[in-house]
Write a structure and sequence with these properties.
The mean pLDDT is 84. The chain has 390 residues and is mainly α. The N and C termini lie far apart (53 Å). The longest helix is centred in the last third of the chain and has 33 residues. It has one domain: Up-down Bundle (Na+/H+ antiporter like fold). Helix content is 77%, strand content 0%.
Length: 390
């Protein structure tokens, strides 16, 4: 039985790798194919009446690790210097403004049609407002560098801001001056912790002579994130700051004490570290979406009771995005439809406590919005390729 499971997992992950290789050519986001593959495997196990354990508890674990690796991968790729400030500003507001507008619009809609409390409605709206970096970043790998860079910044900011916004509402029964002051203090603590952790991990990278050196560092990063989450601190901010600092050592060479780390030699280690993070992110991301596809029920995808809500949510996602791109003076093509929902949407949804749950927001609605937005990414990129080839 154990050998059979190993064979199945190896085959599925190799197929996932083929999807990743071909997505640049086909313009079909690999996540669509992974979800479909997971769903097919589930139908086959049911058809042949194969007994299987309950995999659902693995989903949040894989999702959290995947989120850490994906944000770290994206932040390591980013260049941080004065010439990038305009891009950073546009991408930050591109992530923040549509998120807030959509969250409040959906919250008001849930209140109006379901008579739910505003805070509960807002908590349930946030999962639909976060761009999935797990889908967006791999999807734009063949776009022009400035478009790709914008998507990396925007989707990473969206992940972080979405999680911060969600946790802020979840952890504060009442919203007031005290809660905002406490939140600012948490950000300050994380910023200081990020600086100290970056120095410590950089020292480890430069000093460890053992042939195993990157896995302990990855485990340390995950551990710091988990501890920060345990104390309700914004751990994703640490991941972003750490990735930006380590990935931009050449920009920090001007600071005298940074020279003690031998940044030129350290850059070689960072390059290898980045390669391992990229491969790890692929593995965890593939497992997550395969597992999520496996857990999807056909009735949830085809549920007519939630389909109109899904269409409405998707319409306003791209309505607000088009306004934001226009205001930022960014051409709509090809970035308009690169706003998929995915890993964070699922993680936030399963994090909603029962006392805050509302009947309108269920697995069917989440799955339909994810599939529709991902299909639109595919269609948008295919249209862009067609226009390029004309």
């Amino acid at each position: 039985m154990a050998i059979t499971i190993i064979i199945i997992f190896c085959i599925l992950l190799l197929i996932a790798y083929v999807f990743d290789l071909t997505s640049a050519k086909t313009k079909i986001p690999s996540v669509i194919l992974l979800l479909l593959l997971g769903w097919v495997v589930r139908q086959l196990t049911d058809w042949f009446d194969i007994q299987h354990p309950d995999f659902s508890p693995m989903l949040p674990v894989l999702g959290t690790i995947g989120l850490i690796l994906i944000v770290l991968e994206g932040s390591l790729e980013l260049e941080f210097n004065k010439s990038k400030f305009g891009m950073i500003r546009k991408s930050f507001f591109g992530a923040f403004v549509p998120m807030i507008a959509l969250a409040f619009l959906l919250a008001l809609a849930f209140m109006h049609f379901g008579q739910f409390r505003f805070k509960d409605s807002l908590i349930n709206a946030i999962p639909f407002c976060v761009i999935s970096s797990a889908i967006a970043i791999p999807s734009v790998i063949n776009l022009a560098s400035h478009n790709k860079e914008f998507v990396i910044y925007e989707s990473s900011f969206s992940d972080i801001l979405g999680v911060l916004f969600f946790n802020f509402l979840l952890l504060n029964e009442t919203i007031g001056t005290a809660s905002f002051a406490h939140f600012a203090l948490e950000l300050f603590i994380v910023a200081i912790g990020s600086l100290l952790a970056t120095i410590g991990i950089s020292l480890l990278l430069s000093k460890i002579e053992h042939h195993v050196k990157y896995v302990p560092i990855i485990l340390l990063v995950i551990l710091i994130y988990a501890v920060s989450k345990f104390y309700h601190l914004p751990g994703l901010v640490f991941i972003l700051l750490f990735g930006l600092s380590v990935g931009n050592l050449k920009e920090l060479k001007k600071i005298k004490w940074v020279e003690k780390f031998k940044p030129d030699e350290l850059n070689k280690e960072v390059k290898r570290f980045k390669e391992i993070i990229i491969e790890g992110a692929f593995l965890v991301r593939a497992l997550f979406f395969l597992l999520f596809g496996y857990l999807i029920e056909t009735s949830e995808v085809l549920n007519p009771d939630t389909f109109l809500w899904a269409l409405g949510i998707v319409f306003f996602i791209f309505f607000f995005r088009s306004i934001q791109l226009k205001l930022s003076k960014i051409p709509l093509n090809p970035l308009l439809f690169v706003a998929p929902r995915g890993l964070i949407t699922i993680l936030l949804f399963i994090s909603i406590e029962q006392r805050h749950a509302i009947s309108f927001v269920n697995r069917s609605l989440i799955i339909q919005v994810i599939i529709l937005t991902t299909l639109l990414v595919m269609l948008g990129l295919m249209t862009n390729r067609a226009k390029t080839n004309e």
